[in-house]
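Worked example

This section walks through a single chain of length 214. The input is the sequence exactly as stored; nothing has been trimmed or padded.
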Amino acid sequence: MPDNRLINELPLDDQRSLNPAFASLKRQFHGTFDDESIEHFLVDSFERLAASSRNPTFLSVFAERFARERMQAMMRVDATSPTKPGVLFLCVHNAGRSQMAAGWLRSLAGDRVDVFTGGSEPGEQLNPVVVDAMAEVGIDIGQEFPKPWTDEVVKAVDVVIAMGCGDVCPIYPGKSYVDWELDDPEGMTIDQVRRVRDEIKSRVEVLVDEIESR
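Given that input, the structure is written out below as tokens.
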């Protein structure tokens, strides 16, 4: 459970931006989470993202999405038998490699897999060259945003794929851990990012085959 912070303890402008998000989440998760838990997830998500985000205009929108993802992960944890596998892609900034991998997996596997991403030190924004490179192959990741990994997400998945997050990557028993050694796209030209993009695609294709053969 996130820290017990409430919306009314935040600055007034933040309260105004988060109240609509809180109302939306309450409608979606009514009967699954109580209002207090929803509020705590939302505020905790907001504060985690505020620590690194360069998009204050969209911070409340991202916080709502992050909180929704975390609560959906909790539902997977609480489920006796999740209906589909879950995969978490981890890298340092959650701004390049992990986002490309998630984009490929969503494209290749559709809704047959629950896909999550996270970073050990989330960046300020997605790498725009990475966004452009993925758009070239018809995959739009421009609406994604860097975020930290959280306990409930790690607990919810079956496979954790790490891409350079080192010793800080979370280790939980019962998970399948895979290390993908990939160059960090930060500072790369578009041609260099394309090579990383295509290598990630090849790895994700193998991953899909492995998941579907289980």
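What to look for: The chain is about 50% helix and 10% strand.
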